[in-house]
Amino acid sequence: MRGLVALGLVIGLAALGGALRWYTTRSPPSTPAPRIVGRVVESRQPIAGARVRLKGTADFALTDEQGRFELIGSPREGATLTAAKDGYLIAGVPVSHNRLEVQLTALPARDHTDYQWVDPRPSDASAGACGNCHQAIYNEWQTSGHARSAVNRRFQNLLDGSNERGESGHGWGLADEYPEGVAVCWSCHAPSFELSAATAGPRHVEGVAAAGVHCDFCHKIRATNLEQVGLTHGRFAYDLLRPAEGQLFFGPLDDVDRNEDAYSALQSESRFCAACHEGTLFGVHVYTTYSEWLASPAGREGRQCQQCHMRPSGKLANIAPGSGGLDRNPQTLASHTFLPGGREAMLRQALRISFSAQRQNEEVTASVRLETHDIGHRLPTGFIDRQLLLVVEPLDAQGKACDTLSGARLPDAAGERLLGKAGRLFAKLLTDAEGNAPAPFWRAGVSVADSRLTPGEPEETAFAFPSETVTVRVRVIYRPFWQTVADSKEWPENDTVIYDTSFSV
């Protein structure tokens, strides 16, 4: 009997062993994922915190204190491994085996002021022109305010007191009252303008400087002087690094290993924009966008200016096709239009409006609520004279205007056409020492009343209209300049209607 039990046990174990062998042969242990390991060094000294990736791929690793890195993945044939860190040129080595060493070269210490700026405009005569290789980006930039910042007719009219036709003696003119202030304007509007020529006159800009805020200038910026932001302006607030010979470009891509490129995280951060979008001039806080962003929910969340104003279009997949550029995920390549869809579309997107009304005691009471939507600054922002005007018009059954019984009315600054109409002005209104408003920011003794929309703070305005009101028309108008200024300059267009809807009561 014991023999039978023992025999049965042996047979059972043998059967179990067979089952285990069957399972093992069909599900072998997983093999380790391919790895690439190595070091990043400068003259045999390890570099910590360098960004290492297979060129053109999404994942990257940071080197440790010994300069070591490890990347998981199997490189494609002919792949290049790149390494980048602030203060060094981006370097690359071919992936010939799984243990690699990347040698970085430190950037030069001196900025060469005799450097000749590269013209962005495509040209057969200039092989290095930005638009030759980066045609799609050049086309985007060309539609932007940056490309027109030096030659914008209205900017020039405000500088020299001229009108649309260039005739002098028409309204405000900075050069007439403060000629020494013209160079401050050029520091942002034409940052590559020769400083020695900046006081020669507001129209004496030519060559590459006439391209305004152009490619080569932005990609020569190494750092921003945040200690003096708002007090030091434009090119004076930037730490530039121009080479003695050859080329050097700072950019947001960390795998461009042409031996003339340096990775710059700054180019994807709001502080990159601060030197020109924050400024106190003649004692007046004229440009406040950067400080508005710092105080906004977007700023506190770490959402950068570029995430809205350089949002990828999804159409660009290669920044230099046919000239060594790589095909990349279109969602990783920034747009250079800066106002995606145009200014009007961005203003509409940034504003939310609601209306309510009811009949009470032989009158119509109405309320209009305005609030910003998904923006990181006040509305409007930028140049100090920009405005939003809420215009509310009660109409009877025949479409004729009714009186306004109570509620806010538009002030003198709204211009004769809208003066006294029901509505609100959202702007920074400057008053000079003699009580004139609006006043230019360079006038002595200016006081500022700021009523612009603030992110997270809705503005609701109540009105009362007579009982015959059956329809209320609500408009929001954007103006880049005060209407009195536009009239004196004879500018043909100053109003952009971004909202126009009639509500039945």
Assign an overall shape: globular
**Span of the ends, CA to CA:** 102 Å
What helical percentage do the residues reach?
10-25%
Write down how many β-strands occur, each being a DSSP E stretch of 2 or more residues. Answer: 25
Strand fraction equals 25-35%
Q: Evaluate the radius of gyration.
A: 31 Å
Number of helices: 14
What can be said about the biggest beta sheet? 5 strands, antiparallel
Low-confidence stretches: 1-27
* Side-by-side strand order of the widest sheet: 22-21-19-24-25
Mean of residue pLDDT values: 91
Structural class designation: alpha+beta
List the helices and strands and how they pair.
Elements: H1 2-26, E1 35-42, E2 45-46, E3 51-54, E4 60-62, E5 68-72, E6 80-84, E7 88-89, E8 91-94, E9 99-103, E10 105-106, H2 130-133, H3 135-142, H4 145-148, H5 153-160, H6 174-177, H7 182-189, H8 215-218, E11 221-224, E12 238-240, E13 249-251, E14 261-263, H9 274-277, E15 278-281, E16 284-288, H10 289-295, H11 297-301, H12 306-309, H13 343-350, E17 351-360, E18 363-372, E19 387-395, E20 406-407, E21 423-431, E22 447-450, E23 459-466, E24 471-479, H14 483-489, E25 496-504
Parallel strand pairs: 1-9, 13-14
Antiparallel strand pairs: 1-2, 1-5, 3-4, 3-6, 6-8, 7-10, 11-12, 15-16, 17-18, 18-23, 19-21, 19-24, 20-23, 21-22, 24-25
Q: How would you describe this protein?
A:
It is a single chain. With 505 residues, this protein is α+β, with helices and mostly antiparallel strands. Residues 1-27 have low confidence and may be disordered. The longest helix is centred in the first third of the chain and has 25 residues, at 2-26. Helices cover 20% and strands 26% of the residues. Strands 22-21-19-24-25 form a 5-stranded antiparallel sheet. Strands 1, 2, 5 and 9 form a 4-stranded mixed sheet that branches.
